[in-house]
Amino acid sequence: MSKISKILIIIIFLAISCSVKDTRFSIGLEDFYGVWANEHCQMVKTGKYEILFERDNYIIDCSIRKVNSDDKQIYLETVATARYDTYNAQMFIVAKDLMNGGEIIYDNDRSNTIILSEHSCELKEYPEKIIITSKGETVGELAKLHKQLRLQFPSGNWQTLELIEPLNLSIPYMPIKADSQHIGTALHQWRLGTTFRQNDEGVVNSIAIYTNEHSFEFTINTNDNEIYADCRAGRVKTNDRGTLYDETIRLGYDNMDFAARMVSDNFETLRKELDIDNARFNLVSEFGPDNTVYQPVKSFDDTLIVVEGPDGDYPIVRPSKDSPDILEWFEYEDY
Known about the structure:
With 335 residues, this protein is mostly beta strands. Helix content is 7%, strand content 52%. The chain is built from three helices and 23 strands. The chain has helices at 3-14, 183-190, 266-270, and strands at 34-38, 41-45, 49-56, 59-69, 74-85, 90-97, 101-107, 118-125, 129-134, 137-143, 148-152, 158-166, 169-170, 193-198, 204-210, 214-223, 226-239, 242-254, 257-262, 292-300, 304-309, 312-317, 326-330. The strands form two sheets. Strands 13, 14, 15, 16, 17, 18, 19, 20, 21, 22 and 23 form an eleven-stranded antiparallel β-sheet that branches. Strands 1-2-3-4-5-8-9-10-11-12 form a ten-stranded antiparallel β-barrel. A hairpin with a 2-residue loop joins β21 and β22 (312-317). The longest helix is centred in the N-terminal third of the chain and has 12 residues, at 3-14.
């Protein structure tokens, strides 16, 4: 196997973006991009980022990792970790610029227990698995046949995860226009991809990843010199009436009240079918006791759909191939 092929395998295993070759779409290992889970964890792996949720007793961590590469090494960097203490209702965060990395910008971790690690990684390949090593120590294993990941999370804990939803990367394309027969498809397609936002200081403080069936968000906010992170994950389904959002993880603040929720079994929840009850689009848009919310369509035209949400109206704009806030494009897959 050539050196460049080995590098591409590593990239797909770690779900990291790099600028190397678009040939990564044709080597057959893109199946390892996607949404992964076990009972206590969820993770999304794309070509540029991993967003990882991990529950350990009463502590829930949300971390975001990115990787760069050259023709010799893969550089894995944890750019932020938010730690939620559900017992004491406290949140701590250590974070860099989420896209550019570099120096730590946000830090309210008084216990100094959150470490933002960086690794230079190499590949070791065996008949049934691929092992990623850093300084001679294993940091990840990929089972070739079973689509199973054994991965060291930023906390240092090892987790074995099963694939929930595969994901295919794409070159930029023009999404469909909205019309009365295709509102649901437009709602679905327009939000696909990895996007970023900057704060007023120009720091990238938010990364959102929308796959065909799931959404993941990591956002850093400040309020009166207080730092907090708003992290969430959920299942998403659309039709011509609107969007159903099933929130499986919510970490942050609801109306300034501490919130730290994760479903009891992530794997079992995510593998179940998500069914839309159209009658609920006729009700007020608010979270129900099952942590689902229906967002009915209020208006639309070719390039804009407005849905009603719990906190007001949400405009959803049709992106273009040149949209500057889109870091990655994903292939559209019908439900």
